[in-house]
Design the sequence.
């Protein structure tokens, strides 16, 4: 089972999201082909209603505690259904990698 699929499974089971997208962004970084080191998660759930952003992120981090030991970066976008609707499903793009051999 891939790290991506484990992340998806755990987030589905914990948050019962209305929308979930887990993107392996490792290809954007200076890592070997096929790596699972950088992820972007967009999750929409009623579990986030009345919770501050830091509390939402802590919930996700707690859920993925074991996986975070084996990955380098996790970009998290946590939204309530109303927030997701208001943003028309748009979340920020991840920045380009400036690490490793890509530094100027």
Sequence:
């Amino acid at each position: 089972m891939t790290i991506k699929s484990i992340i998806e499974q755990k987030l589905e089971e914990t948050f019962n999201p209305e929308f979930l997208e887990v993107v392996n962004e490792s290809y954007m970084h200076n890592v070997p082909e096929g790596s699972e080191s950088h992820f972007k998660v967009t999750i929409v759930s009623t579990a986030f209603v009345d919770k501050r952003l830091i509390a939402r992120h802590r919930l996700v981090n707690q859920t993925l505690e074991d996986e975070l030991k084996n990955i380098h970066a996790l970009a998290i976008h946590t939204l309530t259904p109303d927030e997701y609707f208001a943003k028309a499903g748009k979340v920020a793009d991840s920045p380009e990698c400036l690490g490793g051999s890509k530094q100027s």
